[in-house]
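Course exercise 7: structure representation. Students receive a sequence record and must write out the corresponding structure in token form. The form below is the worked example handed out in class, using Cyclic 3',5'-adenosine monophosphate phosphodiesterase (576 residues). Read each field label carefully; the graders check that inputs and outputs are placed in the correct fields and that the protein name is recorded exactly as given.

STUDENT ID: A-19
EXERCISE PROTEIN: Cyclic 3',5'-adenosine monophosphate phosphodiesterase
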Amino acid sequence: MTDPLFTFAVFTDTHIRAPEGDLSSPYAVNNKANARAEVAAALVAAQEPALTIHLGDMVHPLPHMSAYEPACQEARRVFACLEPNLHFVPGNHDIGDKPHDASPAGAVTPEAVTAYSGQFGEQWSCVDHGDCRFVLINSSIVGSGLETEQEQFDWLEEVLATDKRTFLFSHYPLFIDAVDEDEHYDNYGLEGRARLLEVIKRHGVEAVLSGHVHQFFFNRVGETKFYCLPATSFTRQDFAELYNAGPEAEFGRNDRGKFGIMLVDVLADGHRLRFVPTGGAESDAVVDMSQRKPPAKSGLVPFMRHAWYQSRDLPYTGAMEEFSRKRARNDYPLLRLWQMGIETVRTPLADLARPESLRRVQDFAATGLRFHMFTTSMPNDAMLALIAENRDALAGLEIVQVEPDLVRVKEIAKALMKVANVPLYVSRAATSADNAVEGQIYAHNVWTGYRYARRAEILDALADTGLPLRPVFAVGWRADWLGKIGGLQDAFEHRGIEGAVAVQLMTGSPATANFDDDYIVESVAELVRGRTRHPRVTVMLDTFETLDRGYNPRHGLIDRLGNLTPAGRSLTLSRD
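STUDENT ANSWER:
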């Protein structure tokens, strides 16, 4: 694990209200915002960051409301533990909405800017630390036509003209799904977005961090990474439409798995984000306030069975979006992989063939994630070209044997070896037809991996090919995982090879669910503890996201809302 040069903290959307209460919100969960902000501020302070940046919406009452000033004073009290190295980005609640015909609140005005500056300081600013420059802007005035809009762009050109690494902070994200998406409540207008993107590209900004949407999103434009960060106060219930399950409390507004702060480690050759959850806690007593370290690497390679890359159109539901259709995607799988210290995932090779999934493969790879991809057939020339172009994103290629002999496997392997110098794995499409027993119930089922009982025969056959093929064996639920992994370690070491094991969290029947969280947690912990004893065996875990319907239902490492399951949370804990 690379040690950072320094670490800074970012949190956003605290939405603090006047301590005596106010009339700024009809939602019950908003009454929890002040206590949740105190927990978040204390958690940030416990990390002792080099500096802290609040991405806006410090308060909930708008500048024209009588509750605005007392809410701001309460916010400064809550954030006092972070002074003097705390810096503020104005949010739309702090300074007024961006100009938009269908905005549900008042747009930014000179009077609102004056009110904000009297409470939190300049509407744009920058601060240097080490070899980095942190640039904070007022996103509400971009596209406003106010004189200050041009003043801010002129200032940006000056402060970004530096040899220092630059990080830009904006309350509104420039976009949340695609750089050319239509304007809606949660992004920049097209003209202002294009103008700012040109400035960002020309000056080589390393990263742009934003708030406002109360959800996590990750994008890239060129070499610049764009992050939208979760809130500490509440989740936006319009985005609950992204998830494959019913919403959490208050129709999705109180999704406790998504609250937290972000630590950003600045490295010599980049940066990494570390999400520290608060769980929506309203008291320090239930949050670990200790110094958080980067997660230990779990060594697990989970099966990404769900479409982890898909965007979808959200309903225009009023409140925020009455006249536009907003497009977004669930990026929590990426955030959770970071949290769990998972560096490689298993997906179909077909994920390189679709533009939507290919873009996300490349985006994930830009953060350090790698892909173990599998295929059952010979890739065509177009696919071979894609493999060659994206070889740096690949941790391995797996050929699934679907014929009795290895002739086809050898042909595919030779084709793959010509375009990518990555480890080649071979597994088998195992089916229930192999194990049919007269007098027993028959269930249609298919899974990945050779049978452990045939390991000597399989290893001999692979050795006879003369190719560097790494075998993948399957071990079933409650099947002495560590004992079999240990047996494979011995067999691989004896032959001087490496291989993998596909560990199944599903039961033996597609009609039976495995929701035994206690056993899954202990089993996953056992796999991680045994990693150092079995260095030649890559452990692939089936599965990543919970399957709560269909065939072989089972709990995974995240649930259908993108939150960590008990097994997933166990991987975020410190490990020796």
